[in-house]
Design goal:
Elements (H helix, E strand, L loop, with lengths): L4 H4 L3 E11 L10 E12 L5 E4 L5 H5 L1 H5 L8 E2 L11 H7 L7 E5 L5 H4 L9 E4 L1 H9 L9 H7 L2 E3 L13 E3 L6 E5 L8 E6 L4 E4 L7 H6 L4 H6 L3 H16 L4 E3 L4 H9 L15
Parallel strand pairs: 3-5, 5-6, 6-7, 11-12
Antiparallel strand pairs: 1-2, 1-4, 2-3, 8-9, 9-10, 10-11
The structure holds zinc ion.
Zinc ion binds next to α5.
Length: about 290
């Protein structure tokens, strides 16, 4: 079981259910199936307010994905998280169980605006949704078959805010923004999976975790430069993605940062249970 991180006031992570997929889709050469998390970072600001990195799906989307998304919804069959009995729950519902009110979430930093990372924003009425201008452009023009869905809802909410990475190089990434100016939430340019993808370095004084969204689906991609089938299918620009992989590799190997991928089950285990970093040993080829 997780300790009570909300009470400790530290960074913690949740998943909005799991999605089962053939393991080879996210890890070259893997067999069997993988129950992918949709990992969301929760960072207390210290003033009773919270910042999220991504926010998973909304409850209506989890209950009826096909009627919400059309054919792409057939890919989304939600399963409960391993620890949690009963049906899979949204991030908002899990925060309420921990005594955190959704209205106290004031910022959602979107690693990108694909539908599995932002749909839950409707359940956080006071949260700005921060995304880079290329993501805002993409979500406005592209549809569910390109992975985007919430453009209209985000626009009509009036809460979609451009995230300008005005700072220069940081941690080897070409541009950054220190969101609160205190180093707790540092947004880094990690384009490639989409035109405006970011990685977010979360630091609470006890640990630092680099949430890299979908820059890779499995560590083998950035560690060994072996692209998964799903990444091949979704990548916006392979050359940008490879540059981002090199930066993730350096962040992990040279800077010792804990790189977390949104859909990697072993990464989720590591950041929620404090198990040994995966890069301490040989790269696994059998996720799940
Ligand atoms: Zn994703």
């Amino acid at each position: 079981m997780n300790p009570s991180p909300a009470i400790q006031g530290g960074l913690f992570f949740l998943t909005c259910g799991r999605l089962r997929a053939p393991a080879w889709t996210i890890c070259p050469g893997a067999r069997g199936v993988v129950d992918m998390p949709l990992t969301v970072g929760v960072m207390p600001r210290g003033d009773g307010r919270y910042v999220l990195v991504d926010c998973g799906f909304a409850s209506a989307e989890m209950a009826r994905p096909v009627s919400r998304f059309g054919p792409p919804g057939f890919f989304f069959r939600f399963r409960a998280d391993g620890d949690a009995p009963g049906p899979p729950r949204t991030i908002a519902a899990q925060l309420v169980e921990r005594g955190i009110e959704p209205r106290d979430v004031v910022q959602i930093v979107a690693t990108h605006l694909h539908l599995d990372h932002v749909g839950g924003f409707v359940e956080f009425p006071n949260a700005e949704v921060l995304a880079t201008p290329p993501e805002i452009e993409a979500v406005s023009r592209r549809g569910a078959l390109d992975g985007y869905f919430h453009g209209r809802a985000l626009r009509e909410s009036g809460r979609l805010v451009p995230l300008e990475l005005r700072g220069g190089e940081r941690h080897g990434f070409p541009a950054h923004l220190d969101l609160g100016g205190d180093g707790r939430v540092v947004v880094l340019d990690a384009a490639g999976h989409t035109a405006g993808s970011v990685a977010v370095l979360l630091t609470d004084g006890l640990r630092s975790v680099l949430h890299a969204g979908d820059a890779a689906y499995h560590p083998i991609e950035y560690r060994e430069g072996r692209q998964s089938a799903l990444s091949r299918f979704t990548a916006f620009r392979r050359d940008w993605l490879e540059a981002t992989w090199g930066r993730l590799r350096a962040a992990e190997t040279d800077a010792g940062l804990d790189v977390l991928l949104a859909h990697d089950p072993q990464g989720y285990e590591r950041v929620t249970r404090g198990t040994a970093p995966a890069h301490a040993g040989p790269a696994s080829r059998s996720p799940g």
